[in-house]
Backbone:
């Protein structure tokens, strides 16, 4: 039995060789266009791949039921946008914490947290850019300028990192990076409001 968003599919599991074939068939259905899969249940148990193409290794003779749940891509995007302001707030808080660690000469801890923070920052800016490009192009005319300024600051931070000038790095984090995070929090919240209105129409 194959169930997609509460509806039973006309195809039987026995028509397929493995789970990957079942899922590929489900995703090729035109009703799945512009939808994102949120959950897959195999034999009533939540399934997520531990390694790439694991579904290919699960033969259909061991499967009695497959249930796929999905949401519209726009709903998923709005939910993601709702989290962006929280991420910006977390980045600002993290910047303050890292700056304190540098000033206390806890450099190893500070550097470890800084690396994590920079990874999150890159993902944040990438995701924000994708959401804006797809759902709110032109919403904030300052977006490009602010993004460039933020990128310049990240580049500027590499010099004191290389020179091991931890106090200058702490200053950049506290007095430049942190205030920019406040800006990005506002931008993120405005983007979420705009996307919510667009999707509701």
Residues:
């Amino acid at each position: 039995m194959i169930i997609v968003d509460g509806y039973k599919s006309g195809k039987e599991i026995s028509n397929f060789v493995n789970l990957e074939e079942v899922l590929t068939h489900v995703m090729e259905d035109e009703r799945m266009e512009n939808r994102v899969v949120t959950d897959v249940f195999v034999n009533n148990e939540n399934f997520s791949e531990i390694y790439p193409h694991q579904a290919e290794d699960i033969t259909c003779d061991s499967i009695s039921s497959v249930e796929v749940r999905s949401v519209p891509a726009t709903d998923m995007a709005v939910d993601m946008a709702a989290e962006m302001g929280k991420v910006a707030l977390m980045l600002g808080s993290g910047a303050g914490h890292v700056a304190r660690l540098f000033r206390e000469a806890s450099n190893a801890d500070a550097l470890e947290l800084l690396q994590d923070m920079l990874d999150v920052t890159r993902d944040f800016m990438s995701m924000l850019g994708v959401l804006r490009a797809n759902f709110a192009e032109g919403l904030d005319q300052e977006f490009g300028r602010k993004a460039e300024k933020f990128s310049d600051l990240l580049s500027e931070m590499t010099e004191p990192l290389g020179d091991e000038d931890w106090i200058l790095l702490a200053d950049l984090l506290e007095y430049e990076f942190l205030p920019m995070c406040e800006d990005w929090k506002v931008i993120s919240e405005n983007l979420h409001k705009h996307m919510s209105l667009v999707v509701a129409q």
The longest helix spans residues 166-200. The two ends are 36 Å apart (CA to CA).
